[in-house]
Amino acid sequence: MNIITIEHIAKIYQVGSEEVHALADVSLKIDKGEYVAIMGPSGSGKSTLMNILGCLDTPTHGIYNFNGVNVSEMNDNELAKIRNKEIGFVFQTFNLLARSDALHNVELPLIYAGVPSSERKERAMEALSHVGLADRMHHKPNELSGGQRQRVAIARALVTRPSIILADEPTGNLDTKTGEDIMALFNEIYEQGNTIILVTHEEYIAEHAERILRIRDGLIEKDEQVKNRYIPK
Ligand code: ADP
Ligand code: ADP
């Protein structure tokens, strides 16, 4: 089943008197449970595509159907509802609240999603256990290593049981070994049936996915299945 169907989307920014076609004409289908990497040079349109996929922005033209719903013409309020319930975000810079402990950081999306408080703590603890941080739940980000911070961010992304996980350079701020540990965690999450879309500059990171989309000048230049996907141990 397609969780994502994109038909001929374009995103055009007006910069002074010039039009910038950040996305020129992109069509794309992603199935539930797929693991997709998006690659492309700086300025090729990756962030613009991720913002649209993540319902942070809407296309100028074309249709984006997410989980059976046409989200292309939704207003900010409607988009926010979809985001809070159905999309888990993981960023390069973790984006955790510095003054809150791991548990509170993971609980936060449940507050936005309107989950009753009685249920929140339990679900946040469960998500932290899932990423191997049950014993760190009362630590603040500055008391955690980079890899642990990213695990908290992944727990935060999973806690709402989203339909897709969007990860933007999730290993970009980590050393190679720690990056590999994080990729092993993504692999587990994928094997549990989750849909993952990952932006990366690194070919070897992209090869953890089962499919690579290569973007150039706002177009999908190549859409290929990975022949020997790298499966971390
Ligand atoms: P954003 O997602 O903020 O729009 P990019 O995805 O283009 O930005 O880039 C994220 C970071 O990676 C930036 O700091 C950028 O300078 C850097 N970067 C961009 N292109 C490359 C590349 N080909 N190789 C390595 N680093 C890159
Ligand atoms: P990438 O993530 O691959 O680096 P982006 O999606 O950030 O690419 O950018 C694609 C193109 O759109 C670039 O030419 C960029 O300068 C332009 N662009 C992105 N966001 C905006 C914006 N808010 N306003 C104007 N131009 C933008």
UniProtKB/TrEMBL annotation:
One Pfam family this sequence matches: ABC_tran
Domain ABC transporter per the UniProt entry, residue ranges: 4-233
PROSITE patterns named in the record: ABC_TRANSPORTER_1, ABC_TRANSPORTER_2
GO molecular function list: ATP binding; ATP hydrolysis activity; transmembrane transporter activity
UniProt key word ATP-binding: yes
Coiled coil, from the record: none
Cellular component, GO annotation: membrane protein complex
Keywords: ATP-binding, Nucleotide-binding, Transport
Signal peptide per UniProt: none
InterPro entries: AAA+_ATPase, ABC_transporter-like_ATP-bd, ABC_transporter-like_CS, MacB-like_ATP-bd, P-loop_NTPase
Family note: Belongs to the ABC transporter superfamily. Macrolide exporter (TC 3.A.1.122) family.
PANTHER family: CELL DIVISION ATP-BINDING PROTEIN FTSE, LIPOPROTEIN-RELEASING SYSTEM ATP-BINDING PROTEIN LOLD
Protein name, per record: ABC transporter ATP-binding protein
Organism of this sequence: Stygiobacter electus
